[in-house]
Amino acid sequence: MRVTFHGAAGEVTGSLHEVEAAGHRLLLDCGMIQGSPEAEARNADAFPFEPPALDALVLSHAHIDHIGRVPLLVKRGFRGPIYAQKATADLMPIMLLDAAGIAEGEAMRANRRRQRGQPEAVPLYTKDDVRKVLHRVRPLPYDERSEVLPGVELSFRDAGHILGSSIVELWADGRKLVFSGDLGPHGTPILRDPATIAEADLVLMESTYGDRLHRDRAETIVELEGILDDAWRRGGTVLVPAFAVGRTQELLYWFARYWDEWRMSRWKIFLDSPMAAKVTDVYGRHRGLFDDDARQIWRERPNPFTLPNLRISESQEDSMAINRIESGAIVIAGSGMANAGRILHHMRHRLHKRQTHMVFVGYQAQGTLGRRIVDGAKWVRIHGRDVRVNGQVHTVGGLSAHTDQRGLMDWYGHFQGHPPLALVHGEDKAREALAGELGEAHGIQVVLARPGLALDV
After folding, report:
1. 53 and 176, same domain (yes or no)
2. Sheet harboring 166-172: ordered strands across?
3. Which of 115, 210, 231, 372 could form a disulfide with 377 if both were Cys (CB 3.0 to 4.6 A apart)?
4. For the segment 143-189, what is each residue's pLDDT rounded down to a tens digit?
């Protein structure tokens, strides 16, 4: 068995790893590169392999940096089956059709501005391309070992990152590869804790937060309560760029959990993301994957997904109407890195106001608008207009869907015999710190994956 790294090998997005085993070639993930315009332009580059030569694709979860180039892979000739956990399979059409819609819209706007003689802008892929992907998806449950190619067996284990997120176990040629996907922290609301695994011949592990420890979640909840109270006293509005999968549902969970304590009934809560609304419906259909605490909340509190003061903005007119509200609104909208989507509309309208509270609750990649604001930018450009950042900016790091250095070391520590380890899905600063800690703790040499690097298992 041989693994060749192509993406998320020295950066956080664009997960893409090739496996040769039992005479077959398959991919682990096929994700979109996210960040600066220059970084995202790489999504259109040729794949570093021939898509028709691949026999199967295995997806760890439905975040776009893990599935976002699947339609392009099919468009360029891949014809094999696509294996995903059942909830991931339900989330895929929502995520990919949204990505296609964004790509089509950007191409249309670029062509309106096109000067004579310039080439026509073409979307990375279209909604029709997405539909050609979906009939190839083969949903699998957790914890069931299946032969997916002759001589190749696969099992998905719960990664605790988002609904359907999976640790991938692959057996072939008498060897076993374990790919962590993205690992969630212990105690993440709604989700079960990541599964632990004892045996592997090679481990590929994410390292997003390999150089830091998250704040205690209880402290984070106190911080979030304080932000909401301060915003209410100042007569302000709270803007939350939130990922449609995972973070949005967790926020609604906390609003229900502390419905009385935080006096949530006084707020007007807007979920200004049709995609997040669809994702929330999928969460509701997969309650069997929830942890015990979440099941208790659903029994004893307002249903987090149907709070009495929650309004879902379906149309652009609904979204624009929110700006007529001067105070007392919580607006949850995409995108999570403030790089696109309806959150930009609200930021342009409110970011210059001192009573606005901008709350970042997820990872902000290099080159994104969210990262620039978190790093202290005083002016930002939104829809061609310069906007002063006068609002209060908060980074609530304890809500991360990725585990921290301690969690990563604990997860790897369950493997017997300390098998070879390669770190993926992390910037170098994070990976180098984690590699140092793991090397000291277990006496191992940790590989930092790079594009084109191949490891034999």
Report:
1. yes
2. 146-149, 152-158, 166-172, 175-179, 202-206, 421-424, 447-448
3. 372
4. 999 999 999 999 999 999 999 999 999 999 999 999 999 999 998 89
Q: For residues 269 and 390, is the Cβ–Cβ distance under 8 A?
A: no
Compute the distance between CA of residue 67 and CA of residue 93 in angstroms, rounded to an integer.
11
Q: Where in the sequence is the domain holding 433, given as residue range(s)?
A: 2-212+401-456
pLDDT for 427: 94
Burial class (CB in 10 A: 0-12, 13-18, 19+), 32: buried
Do 334 and 313 meet the contact criterion of CB atoms below 8 Å apart? no
Q: Which of 74-88, 108-122, 338-352, 406-420 has the lowest mean pLDDT?
A: 108-122
Q: What is the phi-psi region of residue 285: left when phi exceeds 0, alpha when psi lies from -120 to 50, beta otherwise?
A: alpha
CATH number of the domain at 270, please. 3.40.50.10890
Find the farthest-apart pair of alpha carbons in the chain and give their distance in angstroms, rounded.
Answer: 65
| Same-domain status, 200 and 234 | no
Rounded distance between C-alpha atoms, residue 76 and residue 242, angstroms: 32
Which of these three, 384, 399, 414, is where a domain ends?
399
Same domain, 283 and 413: no
Backbone angles phi, psi at 56, to 5 degrees: -165, 160
Question: In angstroms, rounded to a whole number, what is the distance separating the alpha carbons of residues 241 and 395?
Answer: 11
Spatial separation of the C-alpha atoms in residues 57 and 424, rounded to whole Å: 18
Nearest-CA neighbor of 49 among 25, 84, 69?
Answer: 25
